[in-house]
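Model it.
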Amino acid sequence: MAETGPALRDLTDQEVVRHARAGRETAYRELIRRYERPVFSLIYRMVRDRELSEDLSQETFVKVLKSIASYRPEYKFSSWVFKIANNTAIDHLRRRELDTLSIEGSPHAMTPEAVEATALQLGSSRASPLEALEAKELGGTIEEAIQNLRPEYRSCILLRHVEGRSYEEIAEIMDLPLGTVKTYIHRARNELRVTLGHLRKD
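Modeled.
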């Protein structure tokens, strides 16, 4: 069949969206194929429950398909999708008050490199050969501390340090002014510094 597979896979997101808007079902399936895994990963980092993440991912794609006519092609489609996923996760956290869910055991936990970079940015640098080892050991503590952040702060920190998103992309995903994103990340880092400082003294 001419509508399946390779032809759609070779198109840009914006081109596939045009087909989806025209009612082409295979285009909807192609968009889901492209973003199913990253959307699940983003939501899982927020809610820390696999079954719940699958439900919220499905909810996200229902919202994507229902509102696809409102997508503006001058913006990255990925940012638009992640905005919907992020809002879906945050709305759930607010409703259920799950701010203190543990984030241990994530299949997408920070890599040693990301942990080290985060530790250094949080002011835990040591001018010694043990710096990398100390940063890795801090990884579990950092992840545990992130669970106590309010959902908006947690989302900003995860998008910045785990997803590697720019401040501009985070602002677009979270539908916030750039200055607000920078403020949230600054406050989140300060909270993490305080938490880590107390733990390192114990």
